[in-house]
Write a structure and sequence with these properties.
aminopeptidase activity; M29_Exopeptidase; seven-stranded antiparallel sheet; metal ion binding; Rossmann fold; Aminopeptidase; alpha+beta; NicX; 2 domains
Length: 326
């Protein structure tokens, strides 16, 4: 078993990167689906830095982007900084958006485990790939079209003209064109953009892992037409994804919400999205809402899936070929 003392050192990193001396009121939001050891370690790490953390525990949600309880939301709005250590991501929820719009920064740490806290992704040199992330983000922002292909069959194109791009490397900072995005994650390391609505066409093949599914054993293939998934085929995992989307009873859940690439050179593939989607050599494409990442579509879900060895082009220029090319 990993000693808590080792994990506490890693758990200090997101606080050291983001908490100013006057922002001592830290809220750690967790739920009954999480390993209690994780939020306990984060609580200890925050206290060791002379912060004043409070831990709230709510029932586990059914899916990513589900809303926290009203009591938790009010606690979030009263904090200086909010750390979301939940079994399903709530960083795309309406409550989290309201928190950021009120100038309160958030750090997403959904699905994190003691093993992830102890791994290379958590202890990576964030400064070393933050600059690479900014360069990729600038390419996204300056471009008009994006295309992504993978060896397993992904072949997708979309319009990104005038869209906001984001680069995340564990430190909360203003993103050009969207100063309300006061967020980061830990472990972190991704660059993302939401394509213009109804412009994406082609095929996505998720072959690595996905929210609510975990590791993918049989690739999931989605046909994208005018920005929406019109068919999802594969084995049992494709059937599960269809069920998840159908259960939302909302056509916006099929929207192609995001295209992103991982830039964390220390991240391994674990079956958990908290770390997998940050790993260099992988891309993730999401279905569902994009209204908090520069888009206009609200949906009750935002579900990421990962594909390996992507080649990404902006206006025909290769900017990512299994790793950043900038």
């Amino acid at each position: 078993m990993i000693e808590d003392a080792e994990l506490i050192e890693s758990a200090k990193i997101p606080f050291e990167l983001n908490v100013e001396s006057e922002d001592t009121d830290v809220l750690i939001v967790s739920d009954t689906g999480m390993d209690s050891r994780v939020w306990s370690i984060l609580n200890t790490a925050a206290r060791s830095l002379d912060l004043e953390p409070t831990v709230t525990l709510m029932p586990a949600t059914d899916h990513p982007q589900a809303e926290p309880t009203e009591q938790v939301k009010q606690a979030m709005l009263a904090s200086d900084i909010c750390v979301m250590v939940t079994s399903n991501a709530i960083v795309h929820s309406d409550a989290a958006v309201e928190v950021r719009e009120n100038g309160i920064p958030v750090i997403g740490m959904e699905e994190i485990t003691p093993e992830i806290l102890n791994g290379g992704a958590a202890s990576a040199n964030y400064e070393s790939f933050a600059e690479t992330g900014r360069k990729l983000r600038d390419k996204f922002v300056e471009g008009e079209t994006i295309s992504i292909t993978t060896p397993s069959g992904t072949d997708l194109e979309a319009d990104i003209k005038d869209r906001v791009g984001f680069s995340f490397a564990a430190k909360i900072e203003e993103q050009p064109g969207d100063n309300s995005m006061l967020g980061a994650a830990f472990p972190d390391g991704e660059v993302c953009i939401s394509p213009n609505e109804s412009t994406a066409n082609g095929t996505i093949v998720w072959d690595t892992s996905m929210h609510q599914i975990g590791s993918i054993t049989e690739p999931i293939e989605a046909k994208i037409e005018d920005g929406f998934a019109t068919s999802i085929i594969g084995g049992q995992e494709a059937e599960l994804l269809r069920s998840i989307l159908e259960d939302t009873n909302d056509p916006n859940s099929y929207n192609l919400a995001e295209i992103a690439v991982g830039i964390n050179t220390g991240a391994d593939i674990t079956g958990l999205m908290r770390q997998d989607k940050k790993a260099e050599g992988y891309a993730h494409m999401a279905l569902g809402s994009n209204d908090d990442t520069g888009g206009e579509i609200a949906a009750p879900i935002h579900i990421d899936g990962i594909a390996k060895n992507p080649t990404v082009k902006i206006d025909g220029e290769v900017i990512y070929d299994g790793k950043p090319v900038v």
